[in-house]
Amino acid sequence: MDDPAPDLSLRDAVAALESLYPLQSAAExxxxxxxxxxxxxxxxxxxxxxxxxxxxxxxxxxxGADLLVTHHPLLLRGVHSVATTSAKGASxxxxxxxxxxxWVGHTNADVADPGVSTVLAxxxxxxxxxxxxxxxxxAIGRVGVLAAPVSLADFADVVATALPATAGGIRVSGDxxxxxxxxxxxxxxxxxxxxxxxxxxADVFVTADLRHHPVLEAREEARGGRPxxxxxxxxxxxxxxxxxxxxxLLSALDHVPGATRVETRVSTIRTEPWTFVVGANAARADRAxxxxxxxx
Length: 296
Ligand SMILES: [Zn+2]
Prior knowledge:
Elements: E1 8-9, H1 10-20, E2 33-36, E3 42-43, E4 45-49, H2 54-63, E5 67-70, H3 87-97, E6 101-104, H4 107-110, H5 116-123, E7 127-135, E8 138-151, H6 152-162, E9 171-173, E10 179-189, H7 194-200, E11 204-208, H8 212-221, E12 228-231, H9 234-239, H10 241-252, E13 263-266
Helix pairs in contact: 2-3
Bound molecules: zinc ion (ZN).
């Protein structure tokens, strides 16, 4: 009887991940790739999550994962200690103690095809997709068209249905009754892309982390018209990518020895940091209290 094939090695798993999301396509400031782990260690269980938080690492440990794949880096800035006195240090220590390798696919996953923005565009049903802009070889964001024009209010419902629910919900800037059809998307933070969105001719831009000044200035430039803005939340706009990454990794590992025994799972932990909102829509212009009339 033949010996069973050896387990998948971390070396092979990392090679497969980096064939899908090449490290050289990451932004210069980014820190992607392998963070912890030994290339010769076996990989039997792989957990996918957006953020390597302490809870996610605990989930990986409890499930017995050997490899945690996350979108956001654990260590983006310089660290001088990985003692458990800081959350970052506690995270590194927990990963090393539990022999969990961490691999990060961040801006290299953003620009991949399929990648974070194409998965978001697909989820919204956008056809005829093209890059929102280009940086060197990399396509940033996507622009596509809906099957038929819809009101901005109905489009916001499409976004809400397509994305996982969050406490914060979805914020929209624009006339709820205005018609939209061409849609620009960028998963995660996109408020540095308004020039590209205007140039693309999009009716509406779906992204996240939209701050007061960039948004107000963009709305002023648009004179209240197109492009309208939808802030659908950082976690929600990027989390759809996890299932895609899981499927693509399994396909890439198809003929690699030991890979058939690998179990994979997308984390059930929501790393969206917001817990609840109050007062939503209290000051909505189209729901303003009626003028009481009469003479006071
Ligand atoms: Zn992000």
